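EI: anyone free to look at a 429-residue chain?
SC: sure, send it
EI:
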Amino acid sequence: MSRSTQHPSRRSPLLRQQVRGSALAALGLTTCVALAAGAMTSASASGEAAAAQGPPTRTVTTWGASDDMAGGQLTDTTVRNVVHTSIGGTNLRVRLSNAKGDRPLVLDSVWVGTSAGGPAVVAGTNTRLTFNGSTTATIPPGAVVLSDPLRGEVAPQQTLAVSIHVSGTSGPLTAHNRTMQQTWSGTTRGDFAADESGAVLDDQSATWWWLDGILLDAPVQTQSVATLGDSITAGVGTTIDANRRWPDVLADRLAELPETRQMGVVNEGISGNRVLSGVSKPGSAGDAALSRLERDVLTKPGVDTVLLLEGVNDIGAGSSAAEIVDGYRMLVSRAHAAGRCVVGGTILPFGGSVYVDPEGEKVRVEVNEFIRTSGVFDGVVDFARATADPANPSRLRAEFFGDGLHPNDAGNKAMGEAVDLDVLRCDRR
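SC: here you go
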């Protein structure tokens, strides 16, 4: 099934089940690191009870987004985040974040169902989530929570709607901007999270509010790869609501593999992001990759590999090749210390874009040579060669050009197909 094709009538069996089973308490980031390291491998008890229930599983991330900040605040408002998962499994959970908040965030109605397109949810699939047995989640500033698991199976590549009502006033908004996916909210105040029609959710935006991960249990050999990057990874320049970002193309390819080789894909791109610096304010480029590595990647369960494509915005900001390379070395060292592999992606050409500059091109060529030949990375994906114009390697191919910086749908397809799938499977644990 293509990720650009939605099947609203296809209901996940999980989404027809009631919430039951053991609950997960609100987790701070340090607790999430334990999850990512494999402290919890299934929703069931360990030992004989787990063995009696079937083959061993581990918790993996099937969808993710990086925490950033949106302007303003929301009061007594319902939002409906529409997202597209990668791998399938059981015992779905959602992860909600108040990373940018300055006060406790109270979310008193959280539901998940199968998207029917637009703000609507397929009838009969919307299911209320609980948090440690409660229908309300109170998230301290800087923390995250996991929902209790929903028993049942989730098919791969599902388009889900995660609806959230904020009680009171949110304060600073933890959000992901420029999603390339329409998300919905209500201009009328009140709790409409359970409403499957979405009729009251009449405001569109390209923002995911508070939602930064969807987790499930999969066979124990299953891994996820996190694509850590900037606007090119986030999908800027691709068709909205069509799931044509290069990580989506990668997920399509992985879904066609035998079950024992399938991997989840977690998109951790932020528009404008840099390796070396960043600021946390509305409309910003997000925290630097070096600053957000733990929060956005290493605390996501099941992520064993990081595919890094960052640096073009550092070049645009005037960073030298030596500075960018030092940033890469630090990031790889920290990921390796956490037992993760890092695959390096070469920086795409940007001739003809707002970043065009002879000195910047020299930096890009030098940085890419380091990525290809240094041996610092566990593997390399040569995005630059896959997208460059053979007659003028400083520019994207004409059919990929977009705005000269962000490849269009065809360019993203070429990027997703340039990844050697075998290079993603790497075990440092």
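EI: The longest helix spans residues 321-337.
SC: 👍
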